[in-house]
Amino acid sequence: MKILKKLKKIKGDASFREFYRNKENKSIVVVSKKEKLKNLLIYDAINKILIKNKILAPNLLSENYIKNYIEINDFGDLTLFQILKNKKNDKYIIFKKIIKILNKIQLIKNKKVKNFKNKLYKVKNYNNKILFDETQLFCDWYAPKILSKFKSIKFKKKFSLEIKNLLSKLNYKNVTFVHRDFHVSNLIYYNNKIAVIDSQDALIGNRAYDLASLIDDVRLKTSNELKEKIFRFYIKTNKKIDLEKFKKDFEILSVLRNLKIIGIFMRLAIRDNKKKYIKLIPYAWEMINHRIKEQKEFKGLIFLLKNNFPKHIR
Questions:
Q1: Number of structural domains the chain divides into
Q2: Is the pLDDT of residue 2 over 60?
Q3: What one-character DSSP code corresponds to residue 207?
Q4: Is 48 helix (H, G, I), strand (E, B) or coil?
Q5: How far apart are CA 141 and CA 264, in angstroms?
Q6: In DSSP terms, which residues pair with 30 in a beta bridge?
Q7: What pLDDT shows up at residue 1?
Q8: CA distance 213 to 197
Q9: Is 298 contained in some domain?
Q10: How far apart are CA 131 and CA 147, in angstroms?
Q11: Range of the domain at 206
Q12: pTM of this prediction?
């Protein structure tokens, strides 16, 4: 592709996309040959919904879907992850600003938008089947690396029952716009504002999901005290929430998300040779252990994980 030869390739993420900076146009060229429907067409559709709701997100500048790329705004490289890694910055103040962005996202009502092919795209529901299938990635990629084939099959059967049981305990309905990968590496500080990127997986789901994704972020280590403070601030800004029901959903979704992440990181290491993700697995375990102590619903899962994965792994 001629256009790319002149451009500087920049650091990518865990997806099948490649990113190139066009300094002349102040833009980013996103290339995706695999999963291009999601990574190009749906990505732009979700961005349109965010922009419509006064949330800063990449605007489409040009597209060449046949040649597998779109061109979007360049918000620069300064992520909130980098800002929060700086010990001089007050983490709590920054997280309060992020919660305000999350609240705006959760107020989104429109689920339909026309994509750049002039076809109507409707944001799908984040149903229990999707949540279940995601959590199964732990069994598909992580468990077989630790357990024997026989033990792994046995574990998968019991694990599936536990996950189905936890999903049946969720209180909040799938009525909220969920970014689905809402963490500080996907938030860019640009012109004194926070821009939201990487939104192509957005669905309509449980309002506790994005908060769990933000607070129990595997990439950024934060103290349990700070996690609790951020959680309380979210509750303070959403007074209609039933605290007990919401907290239960938050903990269940945090545990399921981090089990999924362990599976994804192992898959990235094995399938895609992206070994750097393995070093993040111990912190994902740490957060699972922190959350499963919280409520009686986790008893079966605690027993299952303890019996199959030695303490030094967990």
A1: 1
A2: no
A3: T
A4: helix
A5: 7
A6: 19, 70
A7: 56
A8: 15
A9: yes
A10: 23
A11: 77-111+123-308
A12: 0.94
- Which residues are CB-neighbours of 180 under 8 A, at least 6 positions away? 126, 201, 202, 203, 205, 209, 210, 213
Length of the chain: 314
Beta bridge partners of 60: 72
What residues have CB less than 8 Å from 249, skipping those under 6 apart? 170, 171, 172, 206, 207, 208
Q: Which two tokens stand for residue 69?
A: 């790329």
Would 286 be classed as within a structural domain? yes
Residue % of the chain over a pLDDT of 90? 86
Tokens of 105: 């996202």
Q: Is there a domain that residue 171 lies in?
A: yes
pLDDT in tens, 24-71: 888 999 999 988 999 999 999 999 999 999 999 999 999 999 999 999
Q: Is 177 helix (H, G, I), strand (E, B) or coil?
A: strand
Statement: residue 87 has pLDDT above 90: no
Rounded CA-CA distance 113/111 in Å is 7
Q: What is the CATH number of the domain that holds 225?
A: 3.90.1200.10
Task: Tell me how far apart the alpha carbons of residues 142 and 20 are, in angstroms, rounded to a whole number.
Answer: 32
Q: Which amino acid is at 182?
A: F
42, part of any domain: no
